[in-house]
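Subject: for your reference before the review

Hello V.,

The reviewers asked for a structural picture of the protein, and I figured it would be easier to keep everything in one thread rather than splitting it across files. Below is the amino acid sequence we used in the manuscript, unchanged from the supplementary table.
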Amino acid sequence: MPTILVIEDESSIRLDIEQFLQFEDFEVFTAENGKRGLELALQHIPDLIVCDIMMPQLDGYGVLDGVRQNHTTQNIPFIFLTAKGDHDSQRKGMGTGADDYLIKPFNFTELLSTIKARLQRQQTLLADVARQMDELSLLRRIDKELSFRLNPDWIIELMMDWALRRTGAHIAIMGTIDQDEPFLELRYIYGDWQDKTPKKGDRWALEGIIGSVARSEKPVHIDDIEQTPDVKPIHPEMHSLLGVPLATSERRLGVILLESRKIQAFKDEDVAFLQQGANRAAMALEQSYLFQVLIQQYQQEQDLRATFGRFVSQEVAEKIRTGEINSAGVNTVVSVLFCDIRGFTALSESLAPQEVLEILNEFLPLVVDAAREHSGMVNKFGGDSTLLIFGAPTPLEENGYHALRAALQIRTRLEDLNKTKFGKRDFSIKVGIGINTGEVVAGVVGTKDRQEYTVIGDSVNLSARIQALNKDYPHYDILISDHTYTALAQRKSAFEFVDLGSMSIRGKTQAVKVWGVVDVAKPV
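And here is what came back from the structure prediction:
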């Protein structure tokens, strides 16, 4: 039973209104002045207020102002009932926030009609606000779930059920688009399909209205399908439809489609709501997709780590995992390049540890890039030294030539680095590089818990010994063995060398001939 507060200082009028409204099944409170009326309004929160203007203690304008300033009563319909019938008074009354203005003497039928109209409007407004709050609550709930749920099916189910309750649609489907083939895989189905009911997992071609919605950048809303001959509904008995694409800025994810037997079944607010829900469903789908990608990547990494330990080269790890590399080891001819920063110990003593780390992080990428760009593999990092292999695990023709080209690239780019970044710090770094070509055993070594791919043999040791000779020949930053020089064959003419003669190498019974690399003789 709606409650009405009547504020009127004339007792006879107040009594007549009270009896009349009670006869019409309203619950009525009355007040004999404005002050008492405002107190009752704040105490009982009526559904509607009928108020005189000229009253003792507090006039009607004061009552209205008090009602509107309180957040619990500010939206109550307010009707002025007064003898002040002049235009200025009416204008003032409506201007202060009243909903209606009736003039005494009044007609009870007119009063009743005004009250019912205002209550009906208020009920419509409250219902609309309640609906909006309910929808907002749903969207907030979905947003909250999105923060920790990675299964989008829950959000799809919730959102589609809500859309059906709101719109009263007779047919509804939601599907996701297969990224490899042009199909829509159904994930939600509702409606009486008679003997042709689709099933979850069915795949539909992206044709007709399904294809149109999938390719659209905004909702597709048709009030009367019969007036749109180029559109066919997914169910032949439907007369209006609403389709919303599920998409991100990068890709199409799916389609939501609602159909109704009614004409003009879907309102503009239905379109807006479904679009908001679709945006959230798209977020859930994208999160799920990215999560699955991460899971796959993580699992692959764990498999590699569990089987082979921590590898410097992902390429090598992948080859071992797939069985392309024989873990027992194979004999092969490679070129081994050792690279070391000259005077690194003294440099470390003169700089703070953080500065030393920054230098290494600037320098080592040059070495890694040189290996990658010339078909080599970074096999080991050892502080300021690096071991590169050319010719394993993947065989490489002219591996000595590729190793030498990588060494020259390190030299050139280090010169640039010294001029730009290191030059600003008033120091520069120099490297010594040694290259040797010969036969090694390439394979996996280590324990069950930690394994790595490497090359073993005298040829590896010789390249390290040649690199150490840079200290004795400070004018040459790249030294190669005679084995590498011979392996260059016709490629030798592309470079300029200096014969440094044969010299004794620690661990070698015979002298080894060494060449200093001056520069590139001509374009290669």
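For the response letter, the relevant points are probably these. The chain has 14 helices and 19 strands. The mean pLDDT is 83.

Happy to draft the paragraph if you're swamped.

O.
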